[in-house]
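#struct-help
A.M.: can someone run this one for me? Single chain, 213 residues.
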Amino acid sequence: MSDEIRSAAPATHARDAGLVVGEDGLARPLWASKDLLLREYYDGEWGLPVRDERGLFERLSLEAFQSGLSWAIILRKRPAFRLAFADFDPDAVAAFDDRDVERLLGDAGIVRNRAKILATIGNARATVALRDEGGLAQFIWSFQPETTPQPRSLDEIPSRSAESAAAAKALRSKGFSFVGPTTVFALMEAVGIVDTHLLGSHRRGTSGVWSAR
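D.P.: on it. Structure tokens below:
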């Protein structure tokens, strides 16, 4: 979850702290109510389980690119990211060379940050290497906590956890970069490892991983 999402102020017509009831009668946090793209992402994707290698590699990559930027920007650029990074196929990205780096730096459709581009290529290679130990999905999901937060307001949503710190440290030991505890926690939220939907949100407990409470 990006800083813009965490800092969104509750609306005066919220049914619960930080929640807005839409015209469809469904309660969502403010950040998912003010932009159609974010609303669609919240309703149909954010927090649902992702357990495949490519899907996790893509989300890990996008979370790294999002660092310091608006998540809405990353979502709008996601089609271009997928095109530029071979649909986030780890084997294909792992084979990128200097010519690909220069190509990516010249691609206005993505975030042109050399360090993040190089990190994504390096993370693809680390993902491929991790297959010998069960793979990226098994590795990341092994840090699922025993309980999940139960936030009633945006202020109660943590930005990191003991598990995200441990996962970040473990990922770095396997050759991954741009995987700090905050970035990893955002990944864990996005792929259902933790559920930080606000209590009262229509999405709370819908992942099949955690109950509504």
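A.M.: thanks! Strands lie at 19-21, 27-29.
D.P.: also worth noting: The CA atoms of residues 87 and 209 lie 27 Å apart.
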